[in-house]
Amino acid sequence: MSDNAFIDTMMEKVLDGQNVSFGEALKLSSSPDFSKLTEAAKTITRRFCGELVDVEALINAKSGACPEDCTFCAQSSFYETGIKKYQLLPLEVIMDKAREARNKGAKSFCLVGAYRSPPEADFLRICQIIKELKRIVDIDVNVSLGFMTIERARILKALGVKRYNHNLETSESHFSSICRTHDFQERVNTARIVKEAGLELCCGGIIGIGESQEQRLELAFSIASLKADEVPINILITKKGTPLYNLPPLEPLDAIRTISIWRFIMPRAIIKIAGGREVHLKDKDKLALNAGANGIITGGYLTSSGNTPDKDMLTIKEIGLKV
Fold first, then answer.
1. Of 78, 109, 172, 215, which has the maximum CB count within 10 A?
2. Residues 71 and 244 sit within 8 Å (Cβ to Cβ)
3. pLDDT: is 64 or 112 the higher one?
């Protein structure tokens, strides 16, 4: 079977509601016909997800001093990276950021904190902040607070939180190379708790952190097994002071190929281009949104700046998509 015919066969398989196997995904990932692959991923995206782009903004509500040693992370207490560190931000600051996000066109707002798990006092304050956001600002509220218990997850659900973000980060076989203070299964456990509590699960990872192509696919299949509703794909931005600082940058088309392959594996998920897209994709955001992605994070990330919402909204409009 020719390469083009194989891509068509896999596309039709997915459109017919069947799953691709690991071996089939691996063969797709080595396809020399990049354009054919991305066009097939676009077809799958439009069939299952339509023309809407999920636009999300976030706030780094508590920065730095994280007790985990993730080697890619500027917020880890194990490394000196020169980032601004602070405790949980006041309600007024978070509220202003949420209003700005809504006014600029974002449909959801994610409250992120650099915790292993929030201490009780912080968790109670966060719950109060969520109540006020839901009462005053007309925007979906998502949160990312580290490891969860089922009790806390149910409280967040009762408060009206839509999605909980807890990335797997990388594949199980690569995980011990990037983190030693917790293991892969702990991350999987929290993802399962999120689903059990009735919250939508936002669960993705970071590419370009020294993983192999097979490990990148391994991560995608792990995320798919958790039935993640949203899948952010972050591309490593190296931070001075972290162990991964000297890793070479990922090629833009390599990142976009990954987006396309993940669409074959997770045809119905929101696949979101997230941290690192402005650095690595540069002028190829439009290509990514026509190659399997159907979501973006706008206005900046945790320790890195990003595109302005105005620029992102214009990009979406120019390619004929909607928010």
1. 109
2. yes
3. 112
Q: How far apart are CA 64 and CA 194, in angstroms?
A: 24
Q: Which of 35-49, 111-125, 198-212, 267-281 has the lowest mean pLDDT?
A: 267-281
Burial of residue 221 (CB within 10 Å: 0-12, 13-18, 19+) is: middle
* Three-class secondary structure assignment of the chain: CCHHHHHHHHHHHHHCCCCCCHHHHHHHHCCCCHHHHHHHHHHHHHHHHCCECEEEEEEEEEECCECCCCCCCCCECCCCCCCCCECCCCHHHHHHHHHHHHHCCCCEEEEEECCCCCCHHHHHHHHHHHHHHHHHCCCEEEEECCCCCHHHHHHHHHCCCCEEECCCECCHHHHHHHCCCCCHHHHHHHHHHHHHCCCEEECCEEECCCCCHHHHHHHHHHHHHCCCCEEEEEECCCCCCCCCCCCCCCCHHHHHHHHHHHHHHCCCCEEEECCCHHHHCHHHHHHHHCCCCCEEECCCCCCCCCCCHHHHHHHHHHCCCEC
Q: How many CB atoms neighbour CB 136 within 10 A?
A: 11
If you average pLDDT over residues 192-203, what whole number do you get? 98
Alpha carbon distances (Å) from 5 to 16, 28, 37: 16, 11, 11
pTM across the whole model: 0.94
**Rounded Cα distance, 30 and 299, in Å:** 34
Across the range 25-44, mean pLDDT stands at 96
* Domain covering 3-318 assigned CATH 3.10.20.30 in the classification: no
Q: Which of 319, 268, 323 is nearest to 295 (CA)?
A: 323
Q: What is the pLDDT of residue 37?
A: 97
* Model pLDDT, residue 2: 86
Any bridge partners for residue 56, and if so which?
Answer: 108, 297
